């Protein structure tokens, strides 16, 4: 199933659920894991805007799956404890818009240029890797429940006024040229308390961001046009 197929199936579902939420529970936290996230998050936000109840701190695109995969792949490559390994993943949630910032990995470790390229490509294409491993028996859903759980746990910690940081795709001015972008976020009792931004990127990572922007623009525009008709 292509991203276009997903859009055709899921766009109306996200729109209709967002309509119901905007009318019945406009202060709810809306965590969207429904693909294509790069388009479905703008759809939800536009619906809330139409009802004059949009709060950018409360609508999130769950991209934690990319963080989970990045941590697993890096831990495997560097013989680290995966539970203690964290890599911020910025941009979006599809293909080249998935940008692992390996220069900011914790615990700090060094990568050769070849390692960076191979790890980045593996992370960006992890969904395809899963589909191939299933040999046609299913889609790229591996670890989605874990990712959703980790995201919700982070959000709940913020609601309890505990320090909590997680990457997510949200309405943001963190990246010039797009109105939605994933970066690390600090959560609090109102949802997003602070957009932490991309941090310092090296030249390779900046190139990945530059390449992702046109793809994000197309996906965002597609979502906006769907709502506006």
Kindly describe this structure.
GO terms for molecular function: L-malate dehydrogenase (NAD+) activity. It is an enzyme of class 1 (oxidoreductase). Keywords: NAD, Oxidoreductase, Tricarboxylic acid cycle. The chain has 229 residues and is an alpha+beta fold. The protein has 2 domains: 3-61 and 220-228, NAD(P)-binding Rossmann-like Domain (Rossmann fold); 64-170 and 185-211, L-2-Hydroxyisocaproate Dehydrogenase, Chain A, domain 2, CATH 3.90.110. 50% of the residues lie in helices and 14% in strands. It has helices at 3-24, 37-50, 64-78, 113-124, 126-134, 144-159, 203-228, and strands at 30-32, 59-61, 89-91, 98-100, 165-171, 180-188, 191-195. A 3-stranded antiparallel beta sheet has the order 5-6-7. A hairpin with a 6-residue loop joins strand 3 and strand 4 (98-100). Helix 1 (3-24) runs parallel beside helix 2 (37-50), helix 3 (64-78) runs antiparallel to helix 4 and helix 3 crosses helix 6 (144-159). It starts with a helix and ends with a helix. The mean pLDDT is 95.
């Amino acid at each position: 199933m292509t991203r276009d197929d997903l859009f055709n199936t899921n766009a109306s579902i996200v729109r209709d659920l967002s309509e119901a939420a905007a009318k019945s529970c406009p202060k709810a936290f809306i965590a969207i894991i429904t693909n294509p996230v790069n388009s479905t998050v703008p759809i939800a936000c536009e619906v809330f805007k139409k009802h004059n109840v949009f709060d950018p701190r409360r609508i999130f695109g769950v991209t934690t799956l990319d963080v989970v995969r990045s941590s697993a792949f890096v831990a495997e490559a560097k013989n680290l404890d995966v539970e203690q390994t964290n890599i911020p993943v910025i941009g979006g949630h599809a293909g080249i818009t998935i940008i692992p910032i390996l220069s900011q990995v914790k615990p700090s470790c060094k990568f050769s240029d070849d390692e960076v390229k191979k790890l980045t490509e593996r992370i960006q294409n992890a969904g395809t890797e899963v589909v191939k491993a299933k040999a046609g028996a299913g889609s790229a859903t591996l670890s989605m429940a874990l990712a959703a759980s980790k995201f919700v746990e982070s959000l709940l910690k913020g609601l309890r006024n505990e320090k909590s940081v997680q990457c997510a795709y949200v309405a943001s001015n963190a990246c010039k040229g797009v109105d939605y972008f994933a970066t690390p976020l600090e959560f609090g009792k109102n949802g997003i308390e602070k957009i932490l931004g991309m941090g310092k990127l090296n030249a390779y990572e900046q190139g990945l961001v530059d390449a992702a922007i046109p793809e994000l623009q197309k996906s965002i525009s597609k979502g906006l046009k769907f709502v506006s008709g």
